[in-house]
From TrEMBL:
This is RNA polymerase sigma70 factor. Pfam families: Sigma70_r2 (PF04542), Sigma70_r4_2 (PF08281). Residues 26-91 form the RNA polymerase sigma-70 region domain. One of its GO terms (molecular function) is DNA binding. The keyword Phosphoprotein does not apply. One of its GO terms (biological process) is DNA-templated transcription initiation. Keywords: Sigma factor, Transcription, Transcription regulation.
Amino acid sequence: MTEEVTLLKQLQSSTSKDDAFKELLNLYKERLYWHIRNIVKSHDDTDDVLQNTFIKVYKNIDKFKGDSKIYSWMYRIATNESLTFLNQKAKRLQITSEEVQELAINNLTSDVYFEGDAIQLKLQKAIATLPEKQQLVFNMKYFQDLKYSEMSDILETSEGALKASYHLAVKKIEAFLTSN
């Protein structure tokens, strides 16, 4: 029995759920943090979204059927929570999702948790110009080095479509970086 199956059984058992959940947190907290951070940009917002993600995971672990890997399922929740957060923020501020992204990029320079230099900031600005799906695919491939098969599970899209999205994203980013 694989570790993941064992962990899943513990998560779905009322007697071992809390301990298993702590183990799940330790295993995936950092990876999910950076996945969310690449989407929402701000450290504080990332912490909020990460907390919401783990609350959803905890509440819904009994509904997880094991059709995909646990981390793929959690990444899907984290992605959806991140996009929902950005859309709610846009609605609350009465601006577009693109303007929320622009605001987040502009705030990166004052974010004490952003350790990037001018080149990394320029890259983040280039990524922010991409459509939502291309941003997700680029971030998952470039920053997290996920395989297309893993991204396919998470985003529920074919590998071919993901490869095309990544290729287009790279071309657009190159064009942005050379013209700015």
